[in-house]
Amino acid sequence: PRELEHLARTLESHGSVAEAEVLVAYPHVGPTLDLVADTAADHPELRVGILVEDPDGARDLPVPLAPWIDLNPGMDRTGLPLEDEDRLAATLAAAGERLAGLSLYDGHLHQPDLAAREAAIHGLYDRVADVLDRHLGARMAGLELVTAGTPAFAHALRYEGFTALGLHHTVSPGTVVLHDGRSEEENPTLGLEPAT
Fold it and tell me: Which of 94, 97, 139, 170 is 20 to 30 A from 180 (CA-CA)?
C-alpha cells in the first residue's frame, strides 16, 4: 500500500497520473485494503486494480478499486485454483461489470530444457484459455490477462491463444527489467545483457 501511495504521488508530481494504470499484484484485506482504497480515492485519475481470489474479495472491494481475479496455476502462492471452477464462476459473478482483468503467475514453470518449458507453459495457457472461454465467453473481449514470470517470458511472447479469444495478453516478467544472471539462464534467446 505504501508503494502505491509513493507511486501515485510521484506520477502526480510529474503530471502523468491520469495516464497511469496500476495493478496491486497481491490480494489485500482489512487495514491494508483500506490503505489501497484511500490512495485510489485520493488520486481519482489513477486507475487502480487489485487482485482478488474469492467471491467475498470481489464483492467487498471498495468502489475506487477494480477487481482483477488472481488465478493459481499450481504454484500455490496466491490465487484461486484453476480446478475450482465453481469458485471461479462465483468470483466472476461477484466482480460483475467491474472486472478489469485476470492475473496468472506462472513462475513455477522453469524447466532447464527450453522446449519442455515451452510445452508446459503453452499447455497451461491452453488449459486457462479453455476455462476462461467456458466461464467468460464473449465477456473476455477487452479484458486484460497478465501472465509470465521471468522463466515464462519468452514462451509467453510466442503464445497466441489468449489474443485469439479476445483477451489483451500482457506479459510481466519482473527480473527481466534488471536482467540478472538467472534471467539470462532462463531466457537465453532474448539477446539482453545482464545489468552491471
Answer: 170
